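look at this fold:
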Amino acid sequence: MTLPHPTADQISLPNVLTVLGDQTRLAIVGYLALREGQQTNCMQFQDFGSKTNISYHLAKMREAGITRTEVSGTSRLITLRRDEIDARFPGLLDSIIAEAVTLPVVQKVIAAEEAVAV
């Protein structure tokens, strides 16, 4: 099963900014940026909200072209489409990520992951 994603040319600045105007989606971008290069299972966002709520937010982000979702069995693997967004809107994600990584929920999740890793 393949989920639809907009091409890089179809990603629009007003849509990206509208989607990232939501605090939960902004936090998801911050978390994905800190895990750059790693596919993130949708279950890793459980501290960001309910499963239904996160599914909704991830779908909005995928539809806007901010994330890529790959289906792997019953899992969904999420990655930030940083290269494509940077090519289309240079510097946009850098400024968004700089703020997003400081959000309390992102810091809490990262700290919890680091504590488990120790």
User: Anything to note?
Assistant: The two ends are 37 Å apart (CA to CA). The longest strand covers residues 67-72.
